[in-house]
Amino acid sequence: MNKSIFLDRDGVINKEKKDYVKNINELEIFFIEMKKKAKLESNFDKLKIKLNLNLDKILSGINVPRLKNNPIDLNIKDIKTILLKSN
After folding, report:
1. Residue 71 contacts by C-beta under 8 Å, 6 or more apart in sequence?
2. CB distance 80 to 55 below 8 Å
3. pLDDT per residue over 22-39, tens digit each?
4. Torsional sign, CA 44, 50, 52, 56
5. Is residue 10, in this structure, part of any structural domain at all?
6. Residue 72 resides in a domain
7. Could you give the number of structural domains in the chain?
8. Which end of the chain is less crowded, N or C, counting CB atoms within 10 A of the terminal residue's CB?
């Protein structure tokens, strides 16, 4: 059985940092390092997630007003780029 972890980035996962994540590049580096430490899989095919079939559904579930509360300026286009780049 494959196990999954889903992260809701609301500012609490970067407790190890002396300051908060200030931009999308720092956030990406932080997640990459964290995934390596925890030995997490992020390949959608290996997780049996068909990104090309589910991308619109995934993006429609994003709470856009909540994104604006984030110290990092993110929008739906950024999320889509991150997802497509990570596959």
Report:
1. 11, 20, 21, 22
2. yes
3. 777 887 787 788 888 888
4. negative
5. no
6. yes
7. 1
8. N
Residue 28 has, within 13 A of its CA and on its CB side, a CA count of 11
Residues of the chain with pLDDT under 70: 1-18, 87
CA distance 13 to 40: 15
> Could you tell me if residue 82 is inside a domain?
yes
pTM above threshold 0.85: no
The tokens describing 35, both together, are 């995934």
Q: Does 17 map to a domain? A: no
**What would the two tokens of residue 10 be?**
């609301």
What domain range is 60 assigned to? Answer: 42-86
Residue 47 has which token pair?
Answer: 């997780």
Q: In this predicted structure, what is the pLDDT of residue 3?
A: 63
DSSP 14: T
Per-chain mean pLDDT for the chain = 77
* Interatomic CA distance for residues 85 and 65, integer angstroms: 24
**Alpha-carbon span 4 to 54, nearest angstrom:** 17
